[in-house]
């Protein structure tokens, strides 16, 4: 929220750690603060979705790369054995 | 007059120089914004400069926009095993990385043993200690297939897993160690019967039982493929001497790490920022050898320049543990700069076995999204 251009002040405080309550204070340059807060939450949600997509893709790529490497090693081993046998 | 000249000089050097691109910070400010400098006594510039107007006087727009984030954000997986994962997240803010870490530790649900019904315990391990140890045993089951059990619900096949442990050490046989593979899964629910306080119990009254399983859990195809067992079969639960016996039933329910650490799905999850080791001046010959021997994790290497001269280079900055050995002693701070990149996080997640680590991270991100959604719906 701090990065949004409409916000002049933003902060939070937790009055007591035992009770689950957070006080958020938002001060904006004219726009309603509630909307700014909602927009910030929506941005955060979109960011999370993007993080998830990127992470899933990266894991898939890694697994594919490793599977290819494992296959290559297997084929190398088997071809090595063959050549040894032939010799 | 001097001031005017000074101002003109400043204007000239920042705005009018053709090779300084507009929209870029001068290098020392960029360093302050994107790197944590770790000095001998303490790190500086640790906070992330998030305020949108922070560099307004330089003409830089510091506000984070979603498209900029989407373009710059990258994930690279370094290592992926059955139980742990190490990956790099580049371009994300520290607050969000920390939220993921906290959610992984405290708010991802798992199944763990909560209620232990002890029918017979003549061992030297006390009842409550035995129950505590059973609660900490990780169970290999996907918690997403189960619901939470609240106080008003009845335990049924959708929210409870029942295990049975019946071990006996016969007289004359040596001491036995009770390991976690002695826990047997009961897919049909509890076998114990509640004690009725009614003195007048007629034969027609049905005995009350502890769980109300509508159908056997074995009918779920997921459990046919992977029966529910503790993840590690060799966890020592108790030790029995001759003549001692343990007979109990353990009920496992879904919970989160915030309530009790036994419900935390990660052994632990941590992140560190990418270390950046920079040699501020050329370090040659003897000094180079000294530098290389100082570092306990071999971050530095020597390269030959020919004619017998050697120079130190930074070979493995990622291995740096920030022990600061290389800047200890006189003058070394002028030669070596230890820094950390503020938006590059090396995440490591070690799973206890309920879910594979990459699934754990995806679930943690989903939980953060759910929380945002809840806030949004409450606000409107």
TrEMBL record, chain A:
UniProt GO cellular component terms = RNA polymerase I complex; RNA polymerase III complex
Q: Which UniProt keywords apply?
A: DNA-directed RNA polymerase, Transcription
Give start-end of the signal peptide: none
Q: Which residues form the DNA-directed RNA polymerase RBP11-like dimerisation domain?
A: 5-52
Q: From its record, what is one biological process in GO terms?
A: transcription elongation by RNA polymerase I
Question: MF terms per GO, please?
Answer: DNA-directed RNA polymerase activity; protein dimerization activity
| Presence of the UniProt keyword Transcription in the record | yes
Carries keyword Transmembrane? no
Q: Entry's SUPFAM superfamilies?
A: RBP11-like subunits of RNA polymerase
Q: Which Pfam families match?
A: RNA_pol_L_2
Q: Where are the transmembrane segments?
A: none
Q: Which PANTHER family does the entry mention?
A: DNA-DIRECTED RNA POLYMERASE I,II,III (PTHR13946), DNA-DIRECTED RNA POLYMERASES I AND III SUBUNIT RPAC2 (PTHR13946:SF28)
Similarity comment text for this entry: Belongs to the archaeal Rpo11/eukaryotic RPB11/RPC19 RNA polymerase subunit family.
Q: What is this protein called?
A: DNA-directed RNA polymerases I and III subunit RPAC2
User: Which organism's genome codes for this protein?
Assistant: Gossypium hirsutum
Gene name linked to the record: LOC107956761
Automatic annotation (TrEMBL), chain B:
Q: Which InterPro entries does this UniProt record tie to the protein?
A: DNA-dir_RNA_pol_30-40kDasu_CS, DNA-dir_RNA_pol_insert, DNA-dir_RNA_pol_RpoA/D/Rpb3, RBP11-like, RNAP_Rpo3/Rpb3/RPAC1, RNAPI/III_AC40, RNApol_insert_sf, Rpo3/RPB3_RNA_Pol_subunit
Compartments reported by the entry: Nucleus
The yes or no answer to whether the keyword Nucleus is present is yes
Q: Name one GO cellular component term.
A: RNA polymerase III complex
**SUPFAM superfamilies linked:** Insert subdomain of RNA polymerase alpha subunit, RBP11-like subunits of RNA polymerase
Instruction: State the source organism's domain of life.
Output: Eukaryota
Could you list this entry's UniProt keywords, alphabetically sorted. DNA-directed RNA polymerase, Nucleus, Transcription
- Give a single Pfam family match: RNA_pol_A_bac
Q: Which family does it belong to?
A: Belongs to the archaeal Rpo3/eukaryotic RPB3 RNA polymerase subunit family.
Q: What is this protein called?
A: DNA-directed RNA polymerases I and III subunit RPAC1
Originating species: Gossypium tomentosum
